[in-house]
Design brief:
Elements: H1 15-22, E1 31-33, E2 36-37, H2 38-46, H3 59-81, H4 87-102, E3 106-107, H5 110-115, H6 119-124, E4 132-135, H7 140-144, H8 147-157, E5 161-165, E6 181-185, H9 190-205, E7 211-215, H10 237-252, H11 260-277, E8 284-289, H12 293-296, E9 317-323, H13 333-339, E10 343-346, H14 347-352, E11 369-370, E12 377-378, E13 383-389, H15 397-414, H16 422-431, E14 434-438, H17 441-448, H18 450-475, H19 492-496, E15 514-521, H20 525-532, E16 536-539, E17 547-554, H21 567-580, E18 589-592, H22 597-605, E19 613-618, E20 630-632, H23 635-644, H24 650-655
Parallel strand pairs: 4-5, 5-8, 6-7, 8-9, 9-10, 13-14, 18-19
Antiparallel strand pairs: 1-2, 3-13, 4-13, 10-19, 11-12, 15-17, 15-20, 16-17
Helix pairs in contact: 3-4, 8-9, 8-11, 9-10, 10-11, 15-18, 17-18, 18-21
């Protein structure tokens, strides 16, 4: 059995069925000229794995890997748990899952596209399929000490985005640097990196522990490939920098308690190490209290010039305040206008309610936080299982409900897999939490009207509850504490050619044409094929030595673009999704024009937004920072750029034996 985290029986699709689909061209999204598509490029750069023949997966190969991995998980569970396995019925269900995924009516999250059905999942467990998690610092003063920081590093090194809180501020005193020392040769593994951090933190936080003396000799050198996970190693430098930064921070604070800035700095420094170490990526959200001035000033460069400077680490987390519906948050508007933060997390609402259209059920009172993109309510150490659907790719509500069943079947199967962390497994087995998302809702709203959207969302949610009851009974596991959310989509919606989540597409007004920038390694088949086809490439300003950014002229979108939609209308669509669909949360970033700040003051004067979470972004002009992911493109310039490009050499693209980098977490506000 391959890539399933179990030794149970495998599942294989019928070869004749697969061969028929293999001959059918995929329905990639977003035309970039000369028969090329952004969707196909993203697939090749992020998700197309190297096969046993040495070539890259086709879309049919990828879909087959995902479907066979999913049904092998289900079959192994049924064999172990004594549940019924109806071969004919489930064979038809697998073929339906394949067909609906191939035509992109639903897709796994980026993590699932990248990892489901691989040896890595078998060896590393279910964490490789989880997009995000939450870790609380509330237990610092008890027995945990270094544990929340080490757990965040372990998760980030596996590509899981992590939220954390500052609940442990003021609870744990930092000891002096120990006089004794002990040598530690760091193993060349994720576990080795994490253990080195544990030893260093414990030296200051657990009396009697020695100061580690690190030996980095076994760590692979910069440029060495990272098998199976993709990318190349950075060498020991990022880990050395983390050790030095953490040591300096704790020496400076010896004798005092860990405060708000200390907690967030430690988490952000870990994120910086992971992001620069090329063995994972880092996405974090920090949750703070609205009456904590230290938290509010964390991203103020006048107060913290080092952490917010060119070589700083403060940018490694989005920072949000825990607030209650009805709180007066008007004073935050000036801060939001400066840099878009803080965001808001209505924790009490998230704990008490599922959908906001329903009465409070208080089923989630143990939840204390959220993931980095804020679409999932989470308990301490809980990971979130995501999946995505696309209403605009369906002919009818009946067709969509059929897709919903197969999407939930995928997600429910992922909940059957344990991670390497027993405490996470305990809460995940109990909750079986799923975040079944919708994308393209803005386009759907413009095409179908607000009333039809409400009807679809409400009936789809009721259908999802029925499916969950049926699947849970068959598998002999608890129903999911919550089922639905709206995630920001990352790169997955690009494959299907729809706008992410509830957000309106970027582009020029009255046409939607834009430049979409794609980041890719400077050496390799993707960059070579793009350059040969005439696309403009330039060194990546963040990593000029080994990455390039390509400008892709993307055709227009149906409906309006983001610059044509005001903050109140953006909010209205998000509120509709939170009320009628998402029993977890809607991840929404409300873009605010300067002239709309007065509206924002009014909205936040009594912060009852009809949401469980919200973040904000001042709308800047094009070129506000280098190599922005999107740039509106006037139609005449769009046509000129299209004239320069030719067809991509697909023999080169699919023949290059380079593992994809993968989508490591749930963020989407970056150049790919």
């Amino acid at each position: 059995m391959t890539g399933l985290g179990s030794s149970g029986p495998t599942f294989r699709l019928d070869e004749e069925f697969f061969a028929g689909w293999r001959r059918r061209p995929p329905e990639w999204g977003f035309d970039i000229g000369s028969g090329n598509t952004l969707g196909e490029l993203v697939f090749l750069a992020r998700y197309s794995r190297v096969t046993s023949s040495g070539a890259k997966e086709t879309w049919a190969d990828c879909v087959r890997r995902v479907v066979e991995g999913t049904f092998s998980l289900l079959r192994a569970h049924c064999a172990a748990a004594g549940r019924r396995w109806d071969r004919d019925r489930l064979g038809r269900a697998a073929e339906d899952m394949f067909a609906r995924m191939y035509t992109m009516r639903w897709l796994p999250p980026g993590r699932g596209l990248w990892m489901m059905g691989t040896d890595f999942v078998r060896d590393e467990g279910g964490a490789a399929l989880q997009s995000c998690a939450f870790v609380s610092t509330a237990g610092l003063a008890a027995s945990e000490r270094s544990e929340p920081f080490v757990r965040l590093m372990e998760m980030c090194l596996l590509g899981v985005g992590v939220g954390f809180d500052t609940a442990g501020r003021g609870r744990l005193r930092i000891g002096p640097e120990p006089a004794t020392a002990a040598a530690f040769v760091i193993p060349d593994s994720r576990e080795g990196w994490s253990e080195s951090l544990r030893l260093l933190l414990d030296a200051f936080l657990r009396p009697g522990r020695p100061m580690p003396r690190f030996d980095y000799a076994k760590l692979r050198p910069a440029g060495a490939p990272i098998a199976r996970f993709g990318g190349v190693a950075s060498g020991p430098a990022p880990l050395q920098a983390l050790h030095e930064s953490v040591t300096a921070l704790l020496r400076r604070r010896a004798g005092r308690t860990l405060g708000t800035a200390d907690l967030v700095d430690l988490m952000n420094l870990i994120g910086k190490c992971v992001a620069s170490g090329n063995i994972g990526r880092s996405a974090e959200i920090a949750l703070g209290d609205r009456d904590d001035p230290d938290f509010l000033d964390l991203k103020n460069p006048k107060v913290h010039p080092d952490r917010m400077g060119p070589n700083g680490w403060g940018h490694l987390s989005n920072n949000s305040l825990v607030v209650d519906a009805g709180d007066d948050c008007e004073a935050l508007v000036d801060r939001i206008a400066a840099n878009g933060e803080p965001g808001l997390f209505f924790r009490r609402t998230a704990q008490r309610f599922g959908r906001l259209a329903d009465p409070p059920d208080e089923r989630d009172l143990a939840a204390v936080g959220t993931n980095p993109c804020a679409e999932q309510t989470l308990e301490d150490r809980e990971c979130c299982t995501l999946v995505e659907t696309f209403p605009t790719r369906h002919r009818s509500l009946t067709d969509y409900l059929a897709t919903l069943r197969t999407a939930l079947l995928y997600a429910k199967a992922v909940t059957l897999m344990d991670t390497r962390w027993p405490d996470s497994n305990d809460v995940m087995r109990r909750n079986r939490r799923i975040g079944c998302s919708m994308s393209g809702l803005a386009q759907f709203r413009d095409a179908m009207g607000a009333e039809r959207v409400r009807t679809w969302l409400d009936q789809a949610y009721r259908g999802a509850k029925e499916v969950d009851a049926s699947l849970s009974a068959w598998l002999g596991i608890p129903r999911s504490v919550k089922l639905t959310s709206v995630k920001p989509s990352g790169t997955v919606s690009l494959l299907a050619g729809v706008s992410p989540g509830v957000h309106f597409p970027e582009g020029a007004p009255q046409g939607g044409t834009c430049i979409r920038r794609l980041r890719t390694p400077s050496s390799g088949p993707v960059a070579e094929a793009l350059a040969a086809a005439g696309y403009r490439l330039e060194p990546d300003v963040m990593s000029p030595a080994d990455s390039v950014v390509v400008e892709l002229p993307v055709g227009g979108h149906p409906g309006r673009v983001a610059s044509e939609v005001g903050v109140r209308e953006q909010l209205a669509l998000a509120v509709t999704a939170q009320r009628y669909w998402a029993d977890n949360q809607v991840s929404v970033t409300l873009t605010v024009r300067e002239e709309e700040l007065a509206h924002l003051r009014q909205l936040l004067r009594r912060a009852d937004l009809g949401l469980k979470a919200a973040s904000f972004l001042p709308r800047r002009t094009a070129g506000a920072y280098p190599q922005m992911p999107y740039e509106p493109l006037a139609h005449d310039r769009f046509l000129r750029l299209r004239e320069r490009v030719g067809e991509l050499d697909r023999r080169l693209l699919y023949g290059g034996a380079v593992e994809p980098e993968g989508e490591r977490f749930c963020t989407s506000d970056r150049c790919l």
